[in-house]
Peroxisomal bifunctional enzyme
Amino acid sequence: MAEFTRLQNCLALIRLRNPPVNAISTTVARGIKESLQKAITDDTVKAIVICGADGIFCAGADIREFKVHKTFDIQLGDIVDEIQRNKKPVVAAIQKLALGGGLELALGCHYRIAHAEAQVGFPEVTLGILPGARGTQLLPRLVGVPAALDLIISGRHISANEALKLGIIDKIVNSDPIEESIKFAQRISGQSSQELQMTSDMVADKSSALGPPKGYTSKATIEFFFYLTVPGLCCGM
Ligand SMILES: CC/C=C\CC(=O)SCCNC(=O)CCNC(=O)[C@H](O)C(C)(C)COP(=O)(O)OP(=O)(O)OC[C@H]1O[C@@H](n2cnc3c(N)ncnc32)[C@H](O)[C@@H]1OP(=O)(O)O
């Protein structure tokens, strides 16, 4: 599930809870969606923080459901779109792990604050799939195409430090990233909505050089990744 808490100072906290690694199940996705709706439609909420329970952000889609259905029937891309459409700033507080769909959720947020020991990555390739919830668009916008390809094709986890250098994470902390994210959200929620709008417009303008602001994994992208990742198809490389 995802717990919604209305904090003091005009903030809302959405906490993913699905032991042991807060994976995104159908129930968790529904909980995030409903919590976001509550936060967005409450005029007294000025900023939102998303975090995970028990010291871990999220290890991606719930592979227990994948084993049963052989597919992920979770519309995480819609949730990411909703965060990006929304004018209220959303901060991801990354403790320990943000993998797969968990990283896509964090990339959808406007800011990411991680603990120094945290790791992020896209392990989808190890399951024979690609990030399908905007990760293939959002990651290259932040880190450029070569670095994004490297992370998506290798499936490797990288440290918070490397993620900071690449631009995936905005800030690393040695203290509790949830507390830091709340403080940060409080600070930016004090800015006028005009300032926030100007900033998000500038970011959108800058990243538009990399194509449409949102979308889905195009057929060409899938074919390209397929070519690179299926042994025997990449002879000559
Ligand atoms: C929404 C659709 C969009 C996106 C698709 C994806 O997100 S695909 C990516 C899905 N995620 C993964 O593939 C991560 C797989 N897990 C791991 O790499 C490791 O388990 C992990 C998270 C790095 C933790 O490693 P560690 O060595 O610390 O522990 P262990 O492997 O023993 O796992 C601990 C328990 O967590 C369970 N678990 C791990 N990942 C998931 C998951 N994604 N969903 C559900 N459960 C997960 C694992 O089974 C262990 O459970 P236990 O009952 O203790 O055996």
Notes: The domain at 2-192+206-235 is CATH 3.90.226.10 (2-enoyl-CoA Hydratase; Chain A, domain 1).
